[in-house]
């Protein structure tokens, strides 16, 4: 890594979000599955790819965030931690076109700041709801033209406006924390990963019948393939209050089962399974330019090798519904300040940060359990 981003080590527990066997505290929730897929893709990729170096290197296409953003970024605190922005893209181009009309630009359907604590034995994950209204900074479009910043812009439009670099810039502006790495995965990559894993087993406690995601599940235990899993994590209108925050609750329950599936798939005992997963993983992710080779990914994954679902503390950025537009949310400033301050200081996020948040409310997350 460069001197700007290499010195943050890491340590962290990743606590599986969603419904757990023991009731979770408000700061320990898993919020988004597509973004978690990116993290899982990297971890499975790093399991042993040396013998397929050339093949998998050719699958990777990195984004040079450092060059795009230059020196006007938060200072690297050099405290042994590491911060990673993980995005799930909702582009409708190409194979993703079946999920909606291609409007010529993608948005970050899912966004998570993964903070790996010093020592790499713990991690804290903060999800940023896509409908959060923020002050989007000035960015550069794909064609090289400048896009002026905007007040009260939806967070996910940063990616739409200026791609990964603009999304990173927006997160750094709102958090004051420098992102060391960037990872992205899209709908198609998510589906293929689930299929390569052999599906994910979940149990539904109530019927799910959602016209938007086209998912219909009776109460009971199901092994979902990639298409069905994508339908589940896109379900919104038929759960909770129909908001994006309710969908996030549903996603958190699914991701617990997903993480366990990754842990139990046994790739290390099956070279064929490992090769197939690695091929899918390296084709599906877009990393930053410091992770766009097999060697770099392997080193990165080994550094996170001790982390399991039980080692990660999950949280959603504290938000409230916008008084001017109930379809949008705005950060709860006092709570958000506590979240970002804790990560800067490489410590656990206090529960008080989420006291006034609209997130983690309702019962949408109760609909899905591990299979």
What does the model show?
With 371 residues, this protein is of the alpha+beta class. The protein has one domain: 3-Layer(aba) Sandwich (Aminopeptidase). Helix content is 32%, strand content 22%. The protein has helices at residues 33-45, 53-57, 65-69, 157-175, 187-197, 226-234, 244-264, 271-284, 294-303, 333-344, and strands spanning 14-15, 82-89, 108-116, 123-127, 133-136, 139-140, 146-147, 150-154, 181-186, 200-204, 208-210, 215-217, 220-224, 285-287, 310-316, 319-322, 325-331, 368-370. Helix 1 (33-45) packs parallel to helix 7, helix 1 (33-45) crosses helix 8 (271-284) and helix 1 (33-45) packs across helix 9. The longest helix has 21 residues, at 244-264. It is globular and about 50 Å long. Mean pLDDT is 78; it is low at 1-36, 39-51 and 92-104.
List keywords for this structure.
single chain, three-stranded antiparallel beta sheet, seven-stranded mixed beta sheet, alpha+beta, 371 residues, disordered N terminus, Aminopeptidase
Shape: globular
As a whole number of angstroms, the C-alpha radius of gyration is: 19 Å
Termini Cα gap: 40 Å
Q: Percent range for helical residues? A: 25-40%
The domain tally reads: 1
Poorly predicted ranges (pLDDT <50, ≥5 residues)? Answer: 1-36, 39-51, 92-104
Broad structural category: alpha+beta
Strand order of the largest sheet: 1-15-4-3-2-9-14
* Biggest sheet character: 7 strands, mixed
Assembly level:
single chain
Number of helices: 10
Can you tell me the CATH architecture?
Answer: 3-Layer(aba) Sandwich
Order of helices and strands: EHHHEEEEEEEHEHEEEEHHHEHEEEHE
The CATH topology comes to Aminopeptidase
Number of strands: 18
- Classified by CATH, the class is Alpha Beta
